[in-house]
Each structure stands twice: as structure tokens, then as C-alpha cells.
Design a protein that fits this description.
Layout (H helix, E strand, L loop, with lengths): L1 E5 L3 H13 L3 E5 L2 H10 L4 E5 L7 H10 L6 E5 L4 H9 L4 E4 L4 H13 L5 E4 L2 E4 L4 E4 L2 E3 L3 H13 L3 E3 H8 L10 H13 L8 E4 L3 E4 L4
Helix pairs in contact: 2-3, 6-8
Length: about 220
């Protein structure tokens, strides 16, 4: 699933994002409400994890703006306090659920699964390539393609953003985590793995290098 995490505490955001990525989710991080709202209105997410206390625009304000924009994305409100008034405020603003910090990661994953079951696109397609997000299964034509969790996360990112290009630094941030060595060739290694698994046996290639930009998944131009 493609998730947006809006959290101003960098260590907390990195910890949560790393756990979600290990579960093969793609995660975008915004450290302010303004940035979170900008991403939420430009990119189609399967769910948004939104901290209620943010610098500048609060989580409640962000949630309200998202709903006023008539976006139906599921929203999980994260709060450091268990005050009933705070929970009610978030739910009244349009949040679908809430989770009080500190929380167990297992519960967070369960809440995300429950939210994304509601109306999420279960299958992503590009030509004869299909990614079943529920079963975490990939096929091209009639052939099943086994993949690791990181390969799935990279493929999901490319499919969600298709036919747009995705930059190398964005891939590192979304598939791996903060503090990753940007000079590594790991992105190229994983792109080559996807090409071997998805394109090698097919005349029509779906994974393309966009010179000076990054990578794109789609039919040839």
C-alpha cells in the first residue's frame, strides 16, 4: 500500500516508516501539516497516518482540509494523549480512526490493514503486469513472479506513480529509510532485479530509465 505519514518528530517518523516498509508498504513522510496537505492533494494514497499535534497547521486542520477537498482517503489520527476531547475533535474533522501514543507496532499495522481494506484498489495493473496488493503477488501474463519485500515495495511505488517518473532519491526515501547512503548503487541493483523478473522474457519492456530523472514503469513511448 502507498501510505502518507505526517509526523514532525523525525526519529518517531523514521521508526514508524521503517516498520511499515518492512511490511512491504511504500511510505511518504511529511514533517509539517502544510507539506502533508500538499502531498495528500497531489498524490493518491491508500491511507494517511496523521499526527494531531504538528507545528503550524495542526493535524485536525489538515484532516479538515482533506475532507473539504472531497478526498475519501482513510485517515488514522495519531495522538500523544488519550483525552476524549482530542479524539472527538479528530473524528469530527473527518478522521476514520485514532491511535494513542505510545502504541504497539502490531496494533498500528492492524489499524492500517483495516483502513486500507475499505475501498483501496486491491490490484494494480500496467499492460499485462498485475500486482495483487492483498496477496502481495505479482504476475505478468499467466506467469507468477516471486519477489522479495523490497522488490515488492519498489514495484508498488513505480506502479502507483505510473506513468510518471520516480527519482532515485525518492526511491531511496520511500523503499528504504532515513540515513541511507545516497551514493550506493542499491537502487540500480534493485531496478535490474525487477527488469530481469518482469521484462527479460517479454518483447514489450515496462521498466524504463529516464535520463537525468529516474525510472518509469509503463508502456514504451
Amino acid at each position: 500500500m502507498h501510505l502518507l505519514l505526517v509526523e514532525d518528530e523525525r526519529k518517531v517518523a523514521s521508526f514508524i516508516a521503517r516498520s511499515l516498509r518492512e511490511a512491504a508498504h511504500t511510505v511518504d513522510i511529511a514533517e509539517t501539516g502544510e507539506k502533508g496537505l500538499d502531498l495528500a492533494t497531489r498524490i493518491s494514497y491508500d491511507a494517511i497516518l496523521l499526527d494531531i499535534r504538528l507545528p503550524g497547521m495542526s493535524g485536525v486542520q489538515v484532516c479538515r482540509e482533506i475532507r473539504q477537498a472531497e478526498l475519501d482517503v482513510p485517515i488514522l489520527m495519531l495522538t500523544a494523549r488519550s483525552l476524549v476531547e482530542q479524539r472527538v475533535e479528530g473524528l469530527d474533522a473527518g478522521a476514520d480512526d485514532y491511535l494513542t501514543k505510545p502504541f504497539a507496532l502490531a496494533e498500528l499495522h492492524a489499524r492500517v490493514r483495516a483502513l486500507t481494506r475499505r475501498g483501496a484498489a486491491i490490484k494494480l495493473h500496467c499492460a499485462d503486469l498485475e500486482f495483487d496488493r492483498k496477496r502481495r503477488a505479482v504476475t505478468r501474463g499467466s506467469a507468477h513472479i516471486p519477489m522479495t519485500s523490497k522488490e515488492l515495495a519498489l514495484l508498488e511505488l513505480l506502479l502507483v506513480r505510473s506513468p510518471e517518473s520516480v527519482g532515485r532519491s525518492e526511491i531511496i526515501e520511500h523503499v528504504w529509510s532515513y540515513g541511507f547512503d545516497s551514493e550506493t548503487n542499491l537502487v540500480e541493483v534493485y531496478i535490474n532485479r525487477l527488469r530481469q523478473k518482469i521484462d527479460q522474457q517479454h518483447r514489450i519492456k515496462l521498466i524504463h530509465t529516464v535520463r537525468g530523472v529516474g525510472y518509469r514503469l509503463g508502456l514504451p513511448n
